[in-house]
Amino acid sequence: MNEIQVLLKTFRLLEAVSQNRLRAVNHTLHCTTMALTHTLGFPRVGERRELKFALESYWQGATALDTLERVVADLCEQRWRRQADAGCSWVTSGDFACYDLMLDHAAMFGALPRRFGLDPSRFGLADSFALARGTPEQPALEMTKWFDTNYHYLVPELEPGQTFSLHASRYLAQLNAARRAGHPVKAVLIGPVTFLRLSKCAVPDQKLSLLPALLEVYAQLLDKLRHEGIEWVQIDEPVLAGDLEPEWQQALRTAYHRLQSERPRLLLATYFGSVLPHLALLTTLPVDGLHIDVVRAPEQLQPIAAALPATSVLSVGIVDGRNVWRCDLRRALHTLRPLQVERGERLWLAPSCSLLHVPYSLDSETRLGSQVRSWLAFAYEKLDELEVLRRALVEGEDSVTDALTQSDTAVVSRQQSRLVHNDYVAKRQRAIDPSMSTRPSPFDARIARQRAALSLPLLPTTTIGSFPQTPGIRAARAAYKRHELNAFDYLQAMRAEIAHAIREQERLGLDVLVHGEPERNDMVEYFAEHLFGFAITEQGWVQSYGSRCVKPPILYGDIWRPDPITVDTTRYAQSLTDKPVKGMLTGPVTMLQWSFVRDDQPREQTARQLALAIRDEVGDLEKAGIRLVQIDEPAFREGLPLRRDDWPHYLAWAVDAFKLASCGVRDETQIHTHMCYSEFNDILPAIAALDADVITIETSRSNMELLDGFAAYAYPNEIGPGVYDIHAPRVPSLDEMQRLLERACQVVPPQRLWVNPDCGLKTRRWPETVAALGSMVQAARTMRARLQEQGVDQPA
Ligand SMILES: CN1c2c(nc(N)[nH]c2=O)NC[C@@H]1CNc1ccc(C(=O)N[C@@H](CCC(=O)N[C@@H](CCC(=O)N[C@@H](CCC(=O)O)C(=O)O)C(=O)O)C(=O)O)cc1
Ligand SMILES: N[C@@H](CCS)C(=O)O
Ligand SMILES: [Zn+2]
């Protein structure tokens, strides 16, 4: 670079800095006069899933880390620009993660599991993937649901006496990138109490003792942010929407008192439910503002607004961050206006929670019917709604007449639409009677008949349903959707995959086979495509974990099933083998939980409609000669309300929906269910009440810990604890599986045990799948022989 170039560059830099200062000054002036808007978080994966493709390409070794970093920088830049363009008073920084935000916080606080042997001060993005995906030597961190969402976070592993140290360069670099782009920035952090509560400690009782040390790194970070000139930090404590034992309430007090000096202003963000039970605590915390979710818990607004000091900011989560329905703007204004009078610029408007859980934009949708489309708002549209609300409050409703009229029209159209209300469904629902939710005989009688009909060995081996979704399968489906492959050829291609899966399973020696689900893009979306009352998006991707995304279907109307959905594929698979083939369906609670569902009727009513449709499918499979049907309910636990007081009601209707779907079959037909990535031990009575003949569960990442609960509860029916983790590419050794199986045999009578992986194999490749299943079958055979030697070969 010559001298002139250097001078020019310096000049441009100075110019940029002074422009940013000017913007910041304007921003401060602007903020003192009116309600502000902001978002708690934003989708990360990219409008066209750019992050997913960049990650997967890097993991495959096809691109370098630099390329991934460039994609990340572009994505961050786009998200901030979009927030700024929509009029947000701050852009949010700190909510982006390449794989997961809890993982990034653990790394930022130097809390790396010792078993990986990583140095926190030299920790980079590549290391974070080792924790997230495992290495040949070390299994990945556990992954579990983020509250009641379909997003999965990685569980930090802490140990007694854990030390923490601050490594915030990546976090700060992102924040400074936002500022360099000229945006006023609000930083966001997962709060210390939520971070600690969601982490795993080798000695659980000692977890809280780690708080003081953890607070020191938070304090250092906040101090750094203050030095950086950050005015506001949003600090997320969603644990406040759940029950908190007195010691955890005390932890909140300790935390925020410790963090009260040398820091920017703090907005304590709560979401996913009411924080009213903690109101007394909240009003005493030394923070500068509070965000509350008034979509999930509208009842908390008035009491909180009344109790919160007038000097505090109240951020009202008025636009639904968890669902895709357009906001009823007129109603929202009615709610907000008194607050605007009381609080002025200390009223902030926001989505109820981070927008991570909704798709990017309706602009990408070309095939939604115009009526349904008019009822919807995705992340971009939700930001626009906030801006309309802000303008209506500040400049008057006349300034946004068109937007208000459109909102009114959508409200009325949804209430009256024939797309939503179907008399046939209403009539069927009225005809439901309790006998439909009970099997003809109790489990003991049923299982005897099933054993006679199926003649399975001790420790029968099976899989959870899906086999690898290969690039070939995906390409065939993509070509079919683009009309480049005709329906007949697509069907043939899927049949070839089914035949291949059956051949492989026979070769491996599995006892109960599956067709492999090649025709399913996703276990929820596929069924939604075949049911009336659902709309499917083209680009409505939402991150589920890491690079994996789902497109939750939109359940807008009464549900009914025009035709059988899975009978052809299952019957075809059964025609290829003498071994029993298990039919594979998604249960009503999971269909509900993983879709964007109606907010105009209780969830339980929607669940009943779904259950009726699935019941019809189960009946048709039975008629087609299928002897086992698995009804997957991986979201059963996730649907549980965050507060225990609300559990009984949910569990009653959720169990009822499953039973309505599953109980219409003969004793000889064996009903399986499957659940994964959840803690089940606190809902075992409800799981037992499902009365599925067999339940397969994820257990291997937690070393079969989950099974102890089933054993302690004396779970009465058959169980298949997963003997290997399928979410990481690592192929477990035969020895590992054998150890897990031994452990399972010690806690559950072997006569009631099945042997299977943790979950479906759709994310795996065939070579790993064959290798792992081969070992699994071998482990089962070895154990079977050992049990037979001990004389444990008769049903219990
Ligand atoms: C069991 N899990 C599930 C959850 N939620 C669901 N709704 N479904 C689940 O199965 N929650 C808990 C766990 C989460 N686990 C997973 C596991 C795997 C995925 C996953 O693999 N997602 C895929 C997307 C799946 C899909 O819908 N595929 C479509 C479209 C494929 C596609 O991208 N097509 C390209 C063209 C491809 C080509 O030409 O080859 C395109 O359209 O541009 C399909 O198969 O048709 C993912 O890729 O992330 C999710 C959750
Ligand atoms: N049958 C599904 C269950 C996933 S939870 C599958 O195997 O992919
Ligand atoms: Zn599963």
From TrEMBL:
Residues binding 5-methyltetrahydropteroyltri-L-glutamate: 49-52, 145, 150, 548-549, 594, 638
Binding site for Zn(2+) 1: 674, 676, 698, 759
Name of protein: 5-methyltetrahydropteroyltriglutamate--homocysteine methyltransferase
Chain ranges of the Cobalamin-independent methionine synthase MetE N-terminal domain: 37-340
GO biological process: one example: methylation
Organism name: Caldimonas brevitalea
Pfam families: Meth_synt_1, Meth_synt_2
Catalytic residues identified in the record: 727 (proton donor)
Job description of the protein: Catalyzes the transfer of a methyl group from 5-methyltetrahydrofolate to homocysteine resulting in methionine formation.
Binding-site residues, L-homocysteine: 464-466, 517, 632
